[in-house]
Amino acid sequence: MTDEPREIISVISETSVSTGLVRFVDAFFCGTAVGTAALCLSLLLLSDLGALPSDLSDLIEGILLIGFIVGLFTLAGMVVIGLPVTLMLRLLGHERWEVYATLGGGSGMLVLALLMGAPTVLMPGAFLLPISGALAGLASALRWGTWRERAARERERERLDHPSDKRDNPIHDLTH
Asked: Per the confidence metrics, is the pTM higher than 0.85?
Protein backbone atom coordinates (compact mmCIF):
# COMPACT_ATOMS: atom_id res chain seq x y z
CA MET A 1 0.00 0.00 0.00
CA THR A 2 1.28 3.47 -0.89
CA ASP A 3 0.28 6.97 0.04
CA GLU A 4 0.80 8.22 -3.54
CA PRO A 5 -2.39 8.96 -5.44
CA ARG A 6 -2.89 7.11 -8.69
CA GLU A 7 -4.79 8.33 -11.70
CA ILE A 8 -5.78 4.90 -12.98
CA ILE A 9 -6.95 2.33 -10.49
CA SER A 10 -8.97 -0.14 -12.54
CA VAL A 11 -9.00 -2.02 -15.83
CA ILE A 12 -12.70 -1.31 -16.18
CA SER A 13 -12.97 0.56 -19.46
CA GLU A 14 -15.21 3.55 -19.76
CA THR A 15 -17.03 4.31 -22.97
CA SER A 16 -19.29 7.25 -22.52
CA VAL A 17 -22.95 6.64 -23.14
CA SER A 18 -23.18 9.82 -25.17
CA THR A 19 -20.41 8.69 -27.52
CA GLY A 20 -22.14 5.36 -28.09
CA LEU A 21 -25.48 7.07 -28.66
CA VAL A 22 -23.95 9.49 -31.16
CA ARG A 23 -22.36 6.58 -33.04
CA PHE A 24 -25.64 4.65 -32.96
CA VAL A 25 -27.58 7.61 -34.38
CA ASP A 26 -24.84 8.13 -36.98
CA ALA A 27 -25.11 4.49 -38.08
CA PHE A 28 -28.91 4.79 -38.13
CA PHE A 29 -28.89 7.83 -40.41
CA CYS A 30 -26.25 6.29 -42.67
CA GLY A 31 -28.29 3.09 -43.09
CA THR A 32 -31.51 5.02 -43.59
CA ALA A 33 -29.98 7.27 -46.26
CA VAL A 34 -28.44 4.36 -48.18
CA GLY A 35 -31.59 2.24 -47.87
CA THR A 36 -33.80 5.12 -49.00
CA ALA A 37 -31.60 5.87 -52.00
CA ALA A 38 -31.49 2.18 -52.96
CA LEU A 39 -35.25 1.75 -52.62
CA CYS A 40 -36.00 4.95 -54.57
CA LEU A 41 -33.66 3.83 -57.33
CA SER A 42 -35.28 0.37 -57.34
CA LEU A 43 -38.74 1.88 -57.61
CA LEU A 44 -37.54 4.17 -60.38
CA LEU A 45 -36.16 1.21 -62.32
CA LEU A 46 -39.39 -0.76 -61.92
CA SER A 47 -41.84 2.06 -62.60
CA ASP A 48 -43.06 3.73 -65.72
CA LEU A 49 -41.30 7.09 -65.97
CA GLY A 50 -44.59 8.72 -66.99
CA ALA A 51 -46.13 7.63 -63.67
CA LEU A 52 -43.72 9.73 -61.63
CA PRO A 53 -45.23 12.77 -59.96
CA SER A 54 -44.79 15.89 -62.03
CA ASP A 55 -44.94 18.16 -58.99
CA LEU A 56 -41.63 18.43 -57.12
CA SER A 57 -43.36 18.63 -53.72
CA ASP A 58 -45.16 15.32 -54.36
CA LEU A 59 -41.87 13.70 -55.30
CA ILE A 60 -40.20 15.01 -52.13
CA GLU A 61 -43.13 13.81 -50.01
CA GLY A 62 -42.82 10.36 -51.57
CA ILE A 63 -39.10 10.21 -50.89
CA LEU A 64 -39.63 11.36 -47.29
CA LEU A 65 -42.32 8.68 -46.78
CA ILE A 66 -39.96 6.02 -48.14
CA GLY A 67 -37.21 7.38 -45.90
CA PHE A 68 -39.50 7.20 -42.86
CA ILE A 69 -40.43 3.58 -43.58
CA VAL A 70 -36.81 2.61 -44.26
CA GLY A 71 -35.83 4.39 -41.04
CA LEU A 72 -38.33 2.32 -39.04
CA PHE A 73 -36.95 -0.92 -40.46
CA THR A 74 -33.37 0.26 -39.94
CA LEU A 75 -34.00 1.20 -36.33
CA ALA A 76 -35.82 -2.06 -35.63
CA GLY A 77 -32.98 -4.06 -37.16
CA MET A 78 -30.35 -2.17 -35.22
CA VAL A 79 -32.15 -2.66 -31.91
CA VAL A 80 -33.39 -6.23 -32.37
CA ILE A 81 -30.42 -7.67 -34.29
CA GLY A 82 -27.52 -5.20 -34.10
CA LEU A 83 -27.28 -4.53 -30.37
CA PRO A 84 -27.46 -8.22 -29.35
CA VAL A 85 -24.80 -9.00 -31.99
CA THR A 86 -22.66 -6.22 -30.52
CA LEU A 87 -22.97 -7.70 -27.05
CA MET A 88 -22.13 -11.17 -28.31
CA LEU A 89 -19.12 -10.01 -30.34
CA ARG A 90 -17.81 -7.96 -27.43
CA LEU A 91 -18.08 -10.93 -25.08
CA LEU A 92 -16.29 -13.11 -27.64
CA GLY A 93 -13.65 -10.44 -28.21
CA HIS A 94 -14.23 -10.51 -31.96
CA GLU A 95 -15.44 -7.00 -32.82
CA ARG A 96 -14.39 -6.66 -36.46
CA TRP A 97 -15.97 -4.45 -39.06
CA GLU A 98 -16.09 -7.35 -41.51
CA VAL A 99 -18.24 -9.41 -39.15
CA TYR A 100 -20.61 -6.51 -38.53
CA ALA A 101 -20.89 -5.73 -42.25
CA THR A 102 -21.58 -9.35 -43.20
CA LEU A 103 -24.20 -9.82 -40.51
CA GLY A 104 -25.82 -6.43 -41.18
CA GLY A 105 -26.09 -6.91 -44.92
CA GLY A 106 -27.24 -10.50 -44.61
CA SER A 107 -29.84 -9.80 -41.98
CA GLY A 108 -31.17 -6.75 -43.86
CA MET A 109 -31.70 -8.86 -46.95
CA LEU A 110 -33.08 -11.84 -45.07
CA VAL A 111 -35.63 -9.83 -43.08
CA LEU A 112 -37.10 -8.19 -46.18
CA ALA A 113 -37.05 -11.44 -48.15
CA LEU A 114 -38.96 -13.16 -45.34
CA LEU A 115 -41.46 -10.31 -45.11
CA MET A 116 -42.11 -10.49 -48.83
CA GLY A 117 -42.44 -14.28 -48.85
CA ALA A 118 -40.32 -16.68 -50.87
CA PRO A 119 -42.57 -16.94 -53.97
CA THR A 120 -42.74 -13.15 -54.28
CA VAL A 121 -38.96 -12.81 -54.12
CA LEU A 122 -38.62 -15.11 -57.11
CA MET A 123 -40.67 -12.78 -59.34
CA PRO A 124 -38.71 -10.57 -61.75
CA GLY A 125 -37.69 -7.30 -60.15
CA ALA A 126 -38.80 -8.39 -56.66
CA PHE A 127 -35.21 -8.99 -55.56
CA LEU A 128 -34.64 -5.22 -55.50
CA LEU A 129 -36.46 -4.77 -52.18
CA PRO A 130 -34.29 -7.31 -50.30
CA ILE A 131 -31.22 -5.79 -51.97
CA SER A 132 -32.28 -2.39 -50.60
CA GLY A 133 -32.54 -3.97 -47.13
CA ALA A 134 -29.12 -5.52 -47.56
CA LEU A 135 -27.59 -2.18 -48.50
CA ALA A 136 -29.25 -0.41 -45.56
CA GLY A 137 -28.08 -3.12 -43.15
CA LEU A 138 -24.61 -3.12 -44.65
CA ALA A 139 -24.25 0.67 -44.37
CA SER A 140 -25.46 0.78 -40.76
CA ALA A 141 -23.38 -2.19 -39.68
CA LEU A 142 -20.28 -0.94 -41.46
CA ARG A 143 -20.53 2.45 -39.79
CA TRP A 144 -21.20 0.90 -36.36
CA GLY A 145 -18.68 -1.92 -36.77
CA THR A 146 -15.85 0.38 -37.80
CA TRP A 147 -16.31 2.41 -34.61
CA ARG A 148 -16.68 -0.71 -32.44
CA GLU A 149 -13.50 -2.26 -33.86
CA ARG A 150 -11.55 0.97 -33.34
CA ALA A 151 -12.82 1.23 -29.74
CA ALA A 152 -11.92 -2.41 -29.04
CA ARG A 153 -8.40 -1.89 -30.38
CA GLU A 154 -8.05 1.24 -28.28
CA ARG A 155 -9.16 -0.60 -25.13
CA GLU A 156 -6.71 -3.42 -25.87
CA ARG A 157 -3.85 -1.02 -26.57
CA GLU A 158 -4.58 0.87 -23.34
CA ARG A 159 -4.66 -2.39 -21.40
CA LEU A 160 -1.32 -3.48 -22.85
CA ASP A 161 0.35 -0.06 -22.40
CA HIS A 162 -0.38 0.17 -18.67
CA PRO A 163 -0.59 -3.37 -17.28
CA SER A 164 1.13 -2.60 -13.96
CA ASP A 165 -0.53 0.77 -13.39
CA LYS A 166 -4.00 -0.70 -13.10
CA ARG A 167 -5.63 -2.92 -10.56
CA ASP A 168 -8.22 -5.54 -11.39
CA ASN A 169 -10.37 -4.75 -8.39
CA PRO A 170 -11.22 -1.10 -7.73
CA ILE A 171 -13.10 -1.94 -4.51
CA HIS A 172 -9.94 -3.57 -3.16
CA ASP A 173 -8.02 -0.39 -4.02
CA LEU A 174 -10.49 1.76 -2.14
CA THR A 175 -10.42 -0.38 1.00
CA HIS A 176 -6.65 -0.87 1.18
From this structure: no
